């Protein structure tokens, strides 16, 4: 057990902010960048709300110095950003695009000049369209292409960047992109989704192996989106099995291969009607389970699930591919009285403590970082231009306390990255959902620090919540 002051975090705790390339950069056709799957998807009628695209987003590509200045104003000591693969390697293979790499060199230099540690995510969903045309993540070759791309970026930035994560939320890339189809590339084929899952993890392992050989001192990891999963009634076998099934599909199917070197047997058995996992070749799982220096965890909510029960009110779970065996018997419940964000996600801070302590308990010891946590709310701009986002302030405070509780319980949590630094393009929701600590007026690109940003500044300053 770690003994720390009730409201103070351990010395050296990382307080950061996070973004993603397609959500903020804009400049979609500048300096040699070619289309990603998200360019294609967002330009396809009906795929995003209002037909919104990331063509301009927050114009971070041209305003990065201003944005780094805002980070310094907030006091963040680390910034997690992703590299746009089609900006760096437009065709998904071959030599690097010098102008694309130069942008990230400038960004890293600006961060370091302002005493902000850069944390690079190599892939946050923007696969070059050329690789999707060649088969996308269901094709094994895409894993090798990713490892090559990772080394291009590492070769350009590795002398100044010490912290790297390969993928952000491969669950979303595989299952939302290739099963439910609500994310790019919008395909709906469950067997392809499972192949995509495996090849994402294989690309992770190959990239980690190559970067480790090039720089043994680099801090290397991956970011997974994890959920607290609860049965609606712990006395009902059907509810317990629903929780097992969804925990398997949401959490263990990624945690186990990355940290234990195997897929969970019960989940593989559940999915035999979809795939025989023939895409797994000898040596794959050993390569996937490369030793890591950190695990990033993105946490937003809890899932409460029940077995099939016509008397239990439930909401449809759009993330679960309905063609997967047994998924039709799982009901995702909305609990009466539990507050929700503008995304409709329940606010459940204790679930963050539960998730962190569960990983610490069930898996080999590894430093943990919250690489995303935050909430979308409908912000109101005051007459003086200020944004008093009290709900987001309360959300952050509750989750800071949840992090503190996890550390007190012994979880090796070393940092927290708020999602997000800026309001941005929220994928299929377009610009209708705002997660930022900094408001962006998309007509003028004016930035305004919200009350949540000012609160975060105080938390960072005091390395805790204060009285």
UniProtKB/TrEMBL annotation:
Record GO terms (molecular function):
beta-glucosidase activity
Looking at the UniProt record for this protein, which Gene Ontology cellular component terms does it annotate, in alphabetical order? cytosol
UniProt-listed Gene3D superfamilies: Glycosidases
Looking up InterPro entries in the UniProt record yields:
GH (IPR017853), GH_1_N_CS (IPR033132), Glyco_hydro_1 (IPR001360), Glyco_hydro_1_AS (IPR018120), Glyco_hydro_1_beta-glucosidase (IPR017736)
* Superkingdom of this protein's organism: Bacteria
Q: What is its EC number?
A: 3.2.1.21
- Name the top EC class: hydrolase
* PROSITE patterns xrefs: GLYCOSYL_HYDROL_F1_1, GLYCOSYL_HYDROL_F1_2
Keyword Hydrolase set for record: yes
Catalytic residues at 169 (proton donor), 372 (nucleophile)
Keyword Hydrolase listed? The answer is yes
Catalytic reaction equation(s): Hydrolysis of terminal, non-reducing beta-D-glucosyl residues with release of beta-D-glucose
Please report a single Pfam family linked to this protein: Glyco_hydro_1
Which positions are annotated as binding substrate? 23, 124, 168, 300, 419, 426-427
Q: Biological process (GO) annotations?
A: cellulose catabolic process
- The coiled-coil segments of this chain are none
Q: Which UniProt keywords apply?
A: Carbohydrate metabolism, Cellulose degradation, Glycosidase, Hydrolase, Polysaccharide degradation
What PANTHER family does UniProt report for this protein, alphabetically?
A: GLYCOSYL HYDROLASE, LP05116P
**Which family, according to the similarity comment?**
Belongs to the glycosyl hydrolase 1 family.
The entry's protein name is Beta-glucosidase
Species annotation:
Dactylosporangium siamense
**What is the taxonomic lineage of the source species?**
Bacteria, Bacillati, Actinomycetota, Actinomycetes, Micromonosporales
């Amino acid at each position: 057990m770690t003994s720390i002051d009730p409201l103070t975090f351990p010395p050296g705790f990382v307080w950061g902010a996070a973004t993603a390339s397609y959500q903020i950069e804009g400049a979609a056709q500048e300096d040699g960048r070619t289309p990603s799957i998200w360019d294609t998807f967002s330009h396809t009628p009906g795929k995003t709300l209002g037909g919104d695209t990331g063509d301009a987003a927050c114009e971070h590509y041209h305003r990065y110095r201003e944005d780094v200045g805002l980070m310094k104003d907030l006091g963040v000591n680390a910034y997690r950003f992703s590299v746009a693969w089609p900006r760096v390697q437009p065709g998904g293979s071959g030599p690097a695009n010098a102008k694309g790499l130069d942008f990230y060199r400038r960004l890293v230099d600006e961060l370091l000049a302002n005493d902000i540690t850069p944390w690079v995510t190599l892939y946050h969903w923007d696969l070059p369209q050329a690789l999707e045309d060649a088969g996308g993540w269901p094709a094994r070759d895409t894993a090798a292409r990713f490892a090559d791309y990772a080394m291009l970026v590492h070769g350009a930035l590795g002398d100044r960047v010490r912290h790297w994560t390969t993928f952000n939320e491969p669950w979303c890339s595989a299952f939302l992109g290739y099963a439910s189809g609500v994310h790019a590339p919008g395909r709906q084929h469950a067997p392809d989704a499972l192949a995509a899952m495996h090849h994402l993890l294989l690309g992770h392992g190959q990239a980690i192996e190559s970067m480790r050989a090039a720089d043994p001192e680099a801090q290397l990891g991956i970011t997974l989106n994890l959920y607290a999963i609860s049965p609606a009634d712990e006395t009902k076998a059907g509810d317990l099995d629903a929780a097992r099934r969804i925990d398997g599909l949401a959490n263990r199917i990624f945690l186990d291969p990355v940290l234990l070197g195997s897929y969970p047997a019960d989940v593989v058995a559940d999915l035999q009607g979809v795939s025989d996992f023939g895409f797994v070749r000898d040596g794959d799982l050993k390569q996937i389970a490369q030793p890591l220096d950190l695990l990033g965890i993105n946490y937003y909510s809890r899932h409460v699930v029940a077995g099939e029960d016509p008397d239990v009110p439930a909401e449809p779970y759009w993330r679960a591919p309905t063609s997967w065996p047994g998924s039709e018997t799982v009901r995702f419940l909305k609990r009466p009285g539990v507050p929700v964000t503008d995304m409709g996600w329940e606010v459940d801070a204790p679930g963050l403590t539960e998730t962190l302590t569960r990983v610490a308990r069930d898996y080999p010891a590894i430093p943990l970082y919250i690489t995303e946590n935050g909430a979308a709310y409908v912000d109101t701009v005051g007459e003086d231009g200020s944004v008093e986002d009290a709900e987001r302030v309360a959300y952050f405070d509750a989750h800071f306390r949840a992090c503190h509780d996890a550390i007190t319980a012994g979880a090796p949590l070393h940092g927290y990255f708020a999602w997000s630094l800026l309001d941005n393009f929220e994928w299929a929701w377009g610009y209708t959902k705002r997660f930022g600590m900094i408001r962006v007026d998309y007509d003028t690109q004016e930035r305004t620090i919200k009350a949540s940003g000012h609160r975060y500044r105080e938390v960072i300053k005091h390395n805790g919540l204060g009285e």
